[in-house]
Amino acid sequence: MVDEVLSQNEIDALLSAITSGEMDAEELKKEENEKKVRVYDFKRALRFSKDQIRSISRIHENYARLLTTFFSAKLRTYVNISVASVDQIPFEEFIRSIPKMTVLNIYSVAPLEGNVLMEVNPNIAYGLLDLILGGKGNSVNKIDNLTEIETILMSQLFEKAIYKLKEAWSTIVEINPVLEEFEVNPQFLQMVSPNETVVVVSLNTEIGGTSGMINICIPHIVLEPIISKLSVHYWMQTNTKKRDPEAFEKLSKNIQHAQVEAKAILGEATITIQEFINLSKSDVIALKNPIDHPLTLTINNEPKFYIQPGKYNNNMSVQILSEIKGEK
């Protein structure tokens, strides 16, 4: 609980009231010492800590980026998706907050229990459908009169969109999201009990000239087995885990067989275009390197060693004298 900071005028008024007898200092002390009671609503039980909510937000920020890339490539238009908020509320409150007729996609997320719900604002859903069918992304809200073809096209689109959630959650748990049901009326949803706590991730969505919200509703039963992984301590442990010796050795051996280009640079010179045009047989170009200085050996055009030229088994060769020390 944050202490309230009083202004100078409030302090002066308080001192004046105590001095004049309007307020008793002993009563103030007594009131301060009394236990303060805070009303607790059991219907809005908070079952996730702020730390866990931040972790869920971080996961879905990654999902928003992946979804932006997916829709941009699929629809060939401007797409911008970002996390607006992450809240934990009763399921009943979430159902009341969404439109009476909207696009509802219900996904199973094996091996986790329960289902995840994605609610897509009708403006966004019809904008997507119009773009798929070759339009400009115009939105017409007739969600209660979806044709069979429109239903199939929407289902296929959101079935592919949820695959990106698997990638976003992979840092915590491996899931296999599958579209189980496509619905338009929230009243027919009976995922969990009305008082069950759910996490609602709201995504601000702009597709072409249309904007709206995509809400992802995750019941507590889905997150319960992985709650321990939704903490900073787990993320820090994951990020600082030791290197796998077997994998490191295998990677090192594979890298040793990679081919690189080695060049022995005899020297360099700078000439004018006129001199280059007038070059002819037997002309001599003086290099900048003195004859008694070592040459340079480059690996993939990066200078790595000082060398000297010579012969080895009647082949032209170079001998390494020293390594070139650099920032890398």
From TrEMBL:
Q: Identify the InterPro entries for this entry.
A: CheC-like_sf, Flag_FliM, FliN-like_C, SpoA-like_sf
- Where found? Bacterial flagellum basal body; Cell membrane
Pfam families linked to this entry:
FliM (PF02154), FliMN_C (PF01052)
CDD domains on file: FliM (cd17908)
Q: Which domain of life is it from?
A: Bacteria
Record-linked Gene3D superfamilies = CheC-like, SpoA-like
Ordered alphabetically, the record's keywords are: Bacterial flagellum, Cell membrane, Cell projection, Chemotaxis, Cilium, Flagellar rotation, Flagellum, Membrane
Membrane topology term reads: Peripheral membrane protein
**Domain Flagellar motor switch protein FliN-like C-terminal stretches:** 254-324
Family, as annotated: Belongs to the FliM family.
Name of the featured protein: Flagellar motor switch protein FliM
